[in-house]
Predict the 3D structure of the following.
Amino acid sequence: LPSIYRRTLAREDRVSLSSATRVLVNSCYSRESVYRIYGVDATVCYLGVDTETFRPLPAAKGNYLLSVGMVNPHKGYDFVLRSLALIAPNERPPLVICGNAADAYETAYLRRLAVELNVQVDLRTLVTDAELVTLYNGALLTVYAPVMEPFGLVALESMACGTPVVGVREAGVRETVVDGVTGLLVDRDAAAFAEALRGLLAHHDLRASMGSAARAHVEQHWTWPQTDARLEQILSAVWQG
């Protein structure tokens, strides 16, 4: 029965996509995926971030790194832990993982791995938006390593708060983080990721300038009003035929 259900769902999925006048996706990476799977040329309509909620706060920076997202194997937290383990303990801040939901098995695995690698980790779930904004603002850096994330709002939220992002150079993350300007993009290699973190952690002024550039970049390109305008333009074009 499960295989019949999956085949039926896949068939109906293809029918729905092929019958749509216009298919919208959230990134160029998603557009490529849709074309590869369905043969449909989709239109990119980027998402935005609430720059009034996610904003810089006057509080001083803390001494931790932040990683955000559902706690499951696809979010790459184990990669982050293994990368941090390559940084000398006296140079390595604690890691705060903030998840909107958590898989129990993955949580247990990450806790065991952190102990094994001697990496200090604070795993939190179901924090409020206000708490999340405070965490973004207090972090030295946001580290972001999901596996082939189609888009990923985390990078935008962090940049909107003025905190640069060190992310894996793949999928949708390449479209939001400007390498060398609003953060750093690194291949999925633990040693290279650790070196990128080590370099930024050692240079306060560079982190500060990247944080300012990150906020400006979001204000220029990634606000919800800009998303609304893009969507209205697309809908108008479809309506006019």
Observations:
- The two ends are 42 Å apart (CA to CA).
- Residues 83 and 194 are 5 Å apart (CA to CA).
- The mean pLDDT is 94.
- The longest helix spans residues 2-19.
